[in-house]
Input
Amino acid sequence: MRKTLIAGNWKMNMMREEAGALARGVAEEAGDAADRVDVILAPPYTALGAVAGALEGTGIMLGAQNVFWEEKGAFTGEISPGMLADSGCTWVIIGHSERRNVLNETDEMVRRKIEASLKGGLNVIVCVGESLEERHGGKTIKIVGSQVKSALEELRIKDPAGFVIAYEPVWAIGTGQHATPDEAQHVHATIREVTGNIMGDHAGRIRIVYGGSVNEDNIKALLAEADIDGALVGGASLEAGAMANIVRIAGE
Output
């Protein structure tokens, strides 16, 4: 049985004080629903400390939005898995579409970040997804399957429950558009099949979540699908009431 996971990616938003207030608001408004669902909040690096303090004793977990693959050294501006753990993070998001498309992050870079994070004791959410052009070209399954293979082949995962694949169609990120539950389920089922071919029995414990304009209105229908185990929430996670509502619906 895979536990539903709801992760909020705050992207490049929130100063420290407002980040702490938002985290406290989510915890308070979600109440005991957060006990029935794995909830992760991923603020920007600068607010990790403030959010870690606000989440203390709540059961909600802290995540980061990115990581570098080296442990330490002359890598100006980068943050290592050990530094994230030292800041209270137990999860890290890797390969978000904005990093792939805006910052030219490649499958090889994503893979190195995954390996370093697992070695450093972090749980991983790795993002995959197709662009609008690829979708229109009928290449969704080919692109997503290739990204999943690149992330997983010959990867050693000790705890499959600590490894999550987020399907994020690039065309749905911050656009207000989203895949229908049927469309998302079709891709998730393919990811499940590819994952099973690579990892065998372990694949049944790996959660596959949907990301792309998830909100209070569409979360219930998405979670009703067999292979959608949760959501990576963007804009809606910046409002305590909306994020808490998503968590409550997921916990029903």
